[in-house]
Amino acid sequence: MIIGLTGGIGSGKSAAADRFAEAHGVHVVDADMKSRVVVEPGRPALARIVDRFGDDVLLDNGSLNRPALREVVFRDPTQRLWLEELLHPLIREEVVNDLASAESPYALLVSPLLIESGQHRMTERVIVVDVPESIQLARTAARDQVPLDQVRAIMEAQASRDDRLRQAHDVLVNDGDLAALHAQVDALHDRYLAMLSGDTL
């Protein structure tokens, strides 16, 4: 069974995924990490990105300057769509290969764009990590040291909170402390094991 886990920027997806992996041994595939792999130096995707946007999107060591690229594509929706059309099939291939290697009872596909990219169609259930937008803004601005306007632009490019919740089979509410999030993850894990064994909870 493949379970998708998503949430807006700053919602706490990584903290939830880490709990599934560290406390319960669940195989986690992070689509965001795969998105970094497909643009590593030497990969064809990076060459195409540089052809389109120029050397300004490269760091001195030849790797992708992600903040510089993000600034360009979130300013211009047509550029963002071009980038997504280039990267999404490549990311999907990496994700599929990694999921195929899972040995835990179920695997977790973590993706900020699970709904938007169609990756949710690879999953049998969807978990949404949900927080109020005010908390998303504050957490992300503090963590990434970026202006609130840039955080808002990223949030607008992602599915709305309502859209995500409509797709959810399970919701983790992450407006409290880490212990509260962990307790919800633990309960979900037990529920999934029961489902896999044929019991229903």
UniProtKB/TrEMBL annotation:
The keyword Transferase applies. It comes from the Bacteria. Its EC number is 2.7.1.24. ATP binds at G10, S11, G12, K13, S14, A15. GO terms for molecular function: ATP binding; dephospho-CoA kinase activity. Pathway: Cofactor biosynthesis; coenzyme A biosynthesis; CoA from (R)-pantothenate: step 5/5. It is found in: Cytoplasm. Its main location: cytoplasm. SUPFAM superfamilies: P-loop containing nucleoside triphosphate hydrolases (SSF52540). It catalyses: 3'-dephospho-CoA + ATP = ADP + CoA + H(+). The keyword Ribonucleoprotein does not apply. One of its GO terms (biological process) is coenzyme A biosynthetic process. Keywords: ATP-binding, Coenzyme A biosynthesis, Cytoplasm, Kinase, Nucleotide-binding, Transferase. Gene3D superfamilies: P-loop containing nucleotide triphosphate hydrolases. CDD domains: DPCK. GO terms for cellular component: cytoplasm. Catalyzes the phosphorylation of the 3'-hydroxyl group of dephosphocoenzyme A to form coenzyme A. Belongs to the CoaE family. This is Dephospho-CoA kinase. It comes from Halopseudomonas xinjiangensis.
